Amino acid sequence: MITMPEINWGMFNSILLVCMYMSSEIDKVCSNVPDRGARENLQETKRNILIFGGNGFMGSATVEKLLRNNYNVVIVNRGNWYWDSATTVKPFVKQLKCDRMQSLQRCSDLQNFVWEEESIKFDAIIDFSAYQGFQITDAFDMLGSRIKRYIYISSDSVYEVCNKTHSELTREEDAVRPHDLDVQQKLNSQESYGHGKLEAEEELQRQCAKTGVLYITLRLPDVVGPRDNTRRWWLYQLWIQLRGYLERPISVPDNLWDRPLSFVYADDVADVVLKCIESDDKIYNQAYNLAFVEKPTLSEFIHQLLQEFGVHDIEIKRDFSPDALHLYPSVKLGPIDASKVRRVLDWQPTSWKQAFSKTVKFYEDVFKTPLPEFSQAQKDVIRILQVHFTSSPFRVLEGLKDKYGFQLEIRDEL
Ligand SMILES: *[C@@H]1O[C@H](CO)[C@@H](O)[C@H](O)[C@H]1NC(C)=O
């Protein structure tokens, strides 16, 4: 799924685009989803939520939380099931298959649904998979008269195409494009991902002003947690665990050495989405940054992993080369200020420490006690290690066997 050619900063940006696009369509977190019988009894009184995405990393965590809170969930995506979402999400939701790169007008699943369920209304749309303005326009064309609220999952990369005029943490009001059109265009072509996400935000505001639908935009930094489809956290973990079998020394680019980074926990995104849905109207028509309170540097993060695994005999290399490998952060502008959402929603993010332990444990278990649902994810991550972390691909398999007792089955041979 994720194939990485040469890894360098510029290249990694485009890989991230792919990863982010993939991961938006993906998702889940294990937990007790209510059984179907119990849910059907409540059908009449339940509130309806439509989710674009909902099978990816944050999306499936969000769907599960909504199900546990007795919402009726319709998800719209390309139909892939990642990690174990085929068992944790799929049986409990209505799924419509649409590709948002095509016009939704041409998506027969959605057309038929809208036609058959002519009276259905949605308390909210949660949009994990709009990357450009037209996708928002499309959603309003199809569903605008049936929705009250629209929660758009955006990104801190919108600030990359803006004119931030101070050196503190980036705040919501910094999302202002430069006046100068030449500067705008230059930024947009350098940061097309951020440009597209901001264009979608702008279109959402326009549509909401026109229709009276209420919106919230959530701007997320790099998302961490179990079941990440970009595999970035997992790769750092394996880089350390299999270091004796890989050639690439564990390193951090010099320019990132002391730089604090913003992250957000996938479960926290689900939490905030639910809080937004259950809040009254006055918190709407605004953007909110979401992040952990803690802002670790990349070297602190790697140190923490080393400690967790009891490794005391290696030093992290400071890499001065211009194309030094790093998988975080995906933005250049620096960390964000997420105090507004904590204040307005009276919300406490999970502590970095707690999220760290849970995430590490999850990825350790993927090779220690593998589930059949995770075999695709395993193969992807093995492939990336083989291509980018060593010139002896076989050593990766040796390492996995020695470290985790994990063996690829012959028919799975890469
Ligand atoms: C950025 O914002 C500042 C302060 O508002 C303004 O003076 C400056 O002209 C802006 N720069 C661009 C390129 O629009």
From TrEMBL:
The keyword Signal applies. InterPro entries: Epimerase_deHydtase, NAD(P)-bd_dom_sf. Keywords: Signal. Residues 49-291 form the NAD-dependent epimerase/dehydratase domain. It holds the Pfam family Epimerase. Residues 1-31 form the signal peptide. The keyword Transmembrane does not apply. PANTHER family: NAD-DEPENDENT EPIMERASE_DEHYDRATASE DOMAIN-CONTAINING PROTEIN (PTHR43725:SF32), UDP-GLUCOSE 4-EPIMERASE (PTHR43725). This is NAD-dependent epimerase/dehydratase domain-containing protein. The lineage of its organism: Eukaryota, Metazoa, Spiralia, Lophotrochozoa, Mollusca.
